[in-house]
Each structure stands twice: as structure tokens, then as C-alpha cells.
Amino acid sequence: MIKEIEYFLSGKINEECGVFGVFNVEDAAQLTYYGLHSLQHRGQEGAGIASSDGESIIREKGEGLVTEVFNTERIAKLPGNMSIGHVRYSTTGGGGIENVQPILVRSHTGDFVIAHNGNIVNAKELKMQLEAMGSIFHTTSDSEIIGHLIQREVGDFHEKILKALPKLEGAFSFLIMNNENLFVIRDKNGFRPLSMGKLEDGYVFSSESSAFEIVGADYIRGLKPGEVLKVSKDEIESFQYTDCTQDKMCSMEYIYFSRPDSSINGLNVHTSRRNCGAILAKESPVEADIVIGVPDSSLSSAMGYSDFSGIPYEMGLVKNRYVGRTFIKPNQHQRERGVKMKLSAMEAVVKDKRVVLVDDSIVRGTTSKHIIKLLKDAGAKEVHMRIASSPIISPCFYGVDTSTYNELISTRLSPKELGEYIGADSLAFLSNDGMIEGLGKNICLACFTGKYPTSMFSLLENLKK
Ligand SMILES: O=P(O)(O)OC[C@H]1O[C@H](OP(=O)(O)OP(=O)(O)O)[C@H](O)[C@@H]1O
Ligand SMILES: NC(=O)CC[C@H](N)C(=O)O
Ligand code: SF4
Ligand SMILES: [Mg+2]
């Protein structure tokens, strides 16, 4: 029980990284700091910024949140009008300062820095090959591999990048910067988002378009799968590192990760969640008095459920916004109380009501179980749980930590059994077709279907562990 509560307090579907880049704008590092701040929800383990004044690259990084790593003095050490930054949630290689990005590659042909969102699925194989050929790795993260691959190629820097990229399999949105250019890269499956915006005489690039608003930039477009942009003083050139592409945007970006004010592939995240909520209401109706969402990520889908069903949307749960990843764990005696510190049920709203409770996903079932208890303790007559995505039955290898196979409760329990386990009066999930209807057909659904859009290399060995 204690473990379960700690898990509930800490957040479970662990976010992935965020990248932000600036080209040809004064005080680029300062802007990158603001950009990273708005991408903080994507990774809280470490943050870093590298900048260039055209002569040399300076990098500053540290463990923790953006505001913990950077202050005015530290940003002042980063001169120039080109910059890239990164917020990290580790997927390969574990934590620690050495793996905090951007990764700096020193070379007699010119230094460069790398910021990566995603996960390379053939990292183990590539690392073995590269080490056998003499490469010495400075980090344990998969992101460093692209640096070694680039170094082994011949030609101009951009030719080297184009030759190295086809060797990587898996998910990557990269920003790579040397003293002249910024390279903006999206993998051939388009797993992770990456957008371009215009600011003054320059450009900004971000994992999420919502960051543009914060720095005052205008959204131009998202990168295409397999696209490489070479950003120079005079022009932006677009290349494809391969023509073998498919559009497999991570559906979890819409369902859970991205901010509601971001747009991905032309679809606003809040709107996509609202669509899914409405389709869920169409697929799994129930008689009830109010619809409530779990703050914050499922509020939009709860609105959608209410739109379609006509059942009034209410605020039945309140979140303490200061409890989360930085929460100091209470001592043993206080842990039970801790649950209530993250979310409180509004007795005045839910008492004697039949409640439809909408959440975005179920991973281990801990959240739903606790929230249903909170609502029933506050006097709710019935709680009907509706989930705006399908049961998660397979782990992700593309940059999201959705737990291991054994921890995923839907691998063991049917929706009916799971409903009983979490104490709901009924439980229903959005169907796979419903997700496609709400989010479009160009999405990855591997964690819901077990059908991975790429070869999994040695990672498959661990799939059922
Ligand atoms: O079934 P579980 O294992 O409990 O996981 C599912 C829950 O995890 C996520 O919320 P989380 O509490 O991580 O963060 P949030 O407050 O940002 O929604 C998600 O939104 C679900 O509510
Ligand atoms: N979550 C991510 O996108 C992580 C990027 C990279 N795989 C790392 O572990 O640092
Ligand atoms: S497996 Fe799931 S979390 Fe991973 S990229 Fe695909 S949809 Fe996203
Ligand atoms: Mg949640």
C-alpha cells in the first residue's frame, strides 16, 4: 500500500525529453531558457543549453529542473545568436550528469552539440559495432551514438549527417548545432513531434508548438518524417535522409504528454482530447448526473464526454498544483494523507451524485483506484470510470516510459475485472478505432496493440520480462 501511494504521488507515465533551438536571434540562450521552461513537463531529470557565437560552442547543464539548473549568471555565460537546449527524462543509459544533454562532441573538424528526443531501438547493436571500431563513449545514453556515426563519415558536415541517419532505427527528433548551422531532424516514422517557428530575423524550433507562444514566435510548420533542415544565415534547405517514410506520431503525445495548447500535425491537443471524449461517450454511454475529469490531462476529454452525452460537466476534483515531481515524500505516518494532498474531491459537487469519471489512461490502476475511493468517501452514489484511450498492453521503446510488461495491469485483467479491482460501478475504454477516429490514422498505437511499427532488435528479448 505504501509503495502504491508513493507511486500515485510521483506520476507514472514518465515523460520524454523536450528540445528547443534558436537560430539568428539575439540572446539565443535566454530564449532557449524560456522555451525549455515551457517544455518542462516533458522531462525533469536534467536540463542543458549550448550556444554559439559563430566561433566556439559553450555548454552549461545540470541535474534537476530548468529553474534549478539556470540562473541569470549561468545564462550570461552562453553568448551568441544560436542555441539549442534540452530537458531530459532518461529512457536509455540511466540518470546522472554525464547523460544530461546537449551532448558536446569535440573534434578537430569542428565541435558540435546534440539534443535528442526519442529512443534508438538498435542502440545496443550500434554501440557494439562502434566500440569494436574504436569509438570511446563518454555517456551511457543512446543519444551519443549519432555523434560517433557522424564522425565516421566523410564529406561536409551536412553530408555526414545525411549518411549517418539511415543507420539509426527508432524514434528521434534531433537538434544538432555546429558553429555555422543548425540541423533539425525528424525520424522516418515521425514518432516525436518537432515544429518550426519564425521569430524576428531568425527561427525557433521546438518539441511542442506551445513554446512558440511563450517566446513570441509564429508557428510555421511541423517537420515531415525523415526530413532534415539545414538552417543557415541565408536560407533553410530541406533534405530527406530517406524516402522510406511513414507517419506514426505517438498517440500518447495527444492522449497524455503534450500541453493542450500545442498542435501536432495540424491537430490541436485539447481538440484531439475533446474528440476522443465525445467518441468515448458515443461508444460507452451511461446514465449519470455529472461528468468530471482528473486534472489536468483528462479535463479536455471529460468536456468531450459531456458534449456528446449532454450530462453536465463539473469540477469534482481539485489538484494541488505544487504536489508532483518535486514533492518531498512524507514520512511513513503521513503517507496515507499524501494522496489527499495531490487531489481532493469536492463534496459539494459529488455528494449523492452518479458520477462519470473520465481519465486519459490506466497504467497500473493505482490512480483510478485512489480517486474512486476519494469520490465515494465524499459521498458519490455511483462512479462510472471512462478511459479516453484503450488498455495499455505493451511497453513503449520509442522514448516513453509506460512501465514494463508485468506492471501493465491490462495485461492481466479484463476491463470487467479491472473495474472491480478499482472499485468502479462500471469501466469502459475507448476502442482502437475510436482513437483513430479522434486522432487521425497516422499514429503509433503500439502500446495499445503490441504491433510495433519498426523492427525491435534485441529489445524484444525483454518484452515480456
Ligand atoms: O493507472 P496508473 O498507473 O495510476 O496511471 C495512470 C495515470 O497516470 C497518469 O497521471 P499522472 O498521475 O502520472 O500525472 P498527471 O497528474 O499529469 O495526470 C495518467 O494521467 C493517469 O491518470
Ligand atoms: N525521453 C527521451 O526522449 C530521452 C532521450 C534519450 N534516449 C535519453 O535517454 O537521454
Ligand atoms: S508505443 Fe505508445 S507511447 Fe510509444 S510511441 Fe507508440 S503510441 Fe507512443
Ligand atoms: Mg493523470
| Beta-strand share of residues | 15-25%
**Could you tell me how far the N terminus lies from the C terminus, measured between alpha carbons in angstroms?**
23 Å
Which molecules are bound besides the chains? Answer: 1-O-pyrophosphono-5-O-phosphono-alpha-D-ribofuranose, glutamine, iron/sulfur cluster, magnesium ion
Indicate how many domains the architecture comprises.
Answer: 2
| Biggest sheet: strand arrangement | 3-2-4-1-10-9-11
**Average of per-residue pLDDT values:** 91
Please identify the oligomeric state: single chain
Helix content: 25-40%
Give the overall silhouette: globular
Radius of gyration: 23 Å
- Low-confidence parts: 325-333
Give the helix/strand class: alpha+beta
Q: Could you state the CATH homologous superfamily of the largest domain?
A: Aminohydrolase, N-terminal nucleophile (Ntn) domain
CATH structural class of the largest domain:
Alpha Beta
GO molecular function, one term: 4 iron, 4 sulfur cluster binding
Pathway: Purine metabolism; IMP biosynthesis via de novo pathway; N(1)-(5-phospho-D-ribosyl)glycinamide from 5-phospho-alpha-D-ribose 1-diphosphate: step 1/2
Cofactor: Mg(2+); [4Fe-4S] cluster
Enzyme class: transferase
Keywords:
2 domains, single chain, Rossmann fold, binds magnesium ion, 465 residues, binds 1-O-pyrophosphono-5-O-phosphono-alpha-D-ribofuranose, binds iron/sulfur cluster
Brief overview, please?
The chain has 465 residues and is α+β, with helices and mostly antiparallel strands. It has 17 helices and 23 strands.
